[in-house]
Every structure is written in C-alpha cells, then in structure tokens.
Amino acid sequence: MTDYGSRAERWVATRWPAIRARGMWRFVLVKGVAFWGGLMLAFMAIAMTLQLGPSHPRLPLVLAVAVPLCAVGGCVWGLLTWIFNERIHHALQQR
After folding, report:
1. CA distance from start to end of the chain
2. Which residues contact 82 (CB under 8 A, 6 or more apart)?
3. 82 with 27: CB under 8 angstroms?
4. Pairwise CA distance, residues 28 & 61, whole Å
5. Cβ contact 44:68 at 8 Å
6. DSSP 8-state assignment for residue 58
7. What angle do CA 12, 15, 16 make, to 5 degrees?
8. What is the pLDDT along the chain (95 residues), one digit of tens a residue?
9. Is 36 exposed, middle or buried (0-12, 13-18, 19+ CB in 10 A)?
C-alpha cells in the first residue's frame, strides 16, 4: 500500500471504499441527517432550554423550527462530506 501523507488520506484510503459501497444516500441519511443533524438538534434543544427555561411558552415552537433546520444542515453536511471524500479517494487512486 502506498504511504499516505495525512491522517485524512489514510482514513479515506482504508475506510472509504466500504462506506462508499453502501451508497451515498445511506451515508447522507445516517451520518449526515441522523448523526450530525441529531447532535445539532440535541445541542440546540439543550441550549434553548437553558436560555429560555423549560416552561417558556415559545420553547416548543423554537424546537419545532430547529428540527427541519438541523435535518437540512445534516443533509448538506453529509453531501459535502461525501463530495470531499470522493475527491480525495479519486486523487489517491490517481497516484
């Protein structure tokens, strides 16, 4: 195996083929929407609950708005991560 320079290159060279084989949309939904979007939603829920208080009348509305925003953000994160990893993967294949 070729000696890869950075940790990211080593990760893409070793782990990316298996992730890639499962498909882009699975990656976007699991890693992007569920994982990244879920973590952001949890962070937003905690932050807004601490800031507004658990009995604030607008807290449910704020959280209801945060759900789709975090899902869209997770989808974007997943797509961008997929694109960047694909570029690194193809560049490593060219070597």
Report:
1. 11
2. 24, 27, 28
3. yes
4. 27
5. no
6. T
7. 55
8. 456 678 888 888 899 999 999 999 999 999 999 999 999 999 999 999 999 999 999 999 999 999 999 999 999 999 999 999 999 999 888 87
9. buried
